[in-house]
Write a structure and sequence with these properties.
This protein is of the alpha+beta class and 130 residues long. The protein has four helices and five strands. It has one domain: Gcn5-related N-acetyltransferase (GNAT) (Aminopeptidase, 3-Layer(aba) Sandwich). The mean pLDDT is 85.
């Protein structure tokens, strides 16, 4: 596995179409960095984005193969944690839309927000991001 940040073109042409297919908001290359895990053939296997606020995520698997017992995910999280420390991030928000993500957040000491949070998802709201 190779770990590196995606180029702006990769975010636009690889990640954003994958997010759109899942009904998730696409990322702006002006305010997001995406760390990717690439297999030995150079294919994107999984990615983790950091966005302004910052918002951590989405953590996205790009294929259906189970290569390891979560090693790729743990490594992405460790690499992103290093990035956050290097950039002196004050805090971050993670949308834990799965039990796995919720457990991962708890493992890293994040606190669950008890207040209502609302989001506009372009694919569902009619909001045009183009």
């Amino acid at each position: 596995m190779t770990y590196r940040f995606l180029t702006d073109d990769e975010v636009q042409n690889v990640l954003n179409p994958a997010l759109a297919m899942r009904g998730q908001a696409m990322l702006s290359v002006l305010c997001a960095s995406v760390l990717g895990a690439f297999d030995d053939k150079g294919a994107l296997v999984e990615s983790l984005a950091i966005q302004l606020f910052p918002v951590l995520g989405p953590l996205t698997r790009h294929d259906n193969e189970q290569r390891d017992a979560g090693e790729t995910t743990r490594r992405l999280v460790e690499e992103m944690q290093t990035y956050l420390k290097q950039h002196e991030t004050r805090g971050l928000l993670c949308i834990a839309d799965s039990p796995f993500t919720e457990r991962l957040c708890a493992r890293y000491g994040m606190q669950k927000v008890e207040s209502p949070v609302f989001v506009t998802i372009p694919a569902q709201s009619g909001y045009d991001v183009q």
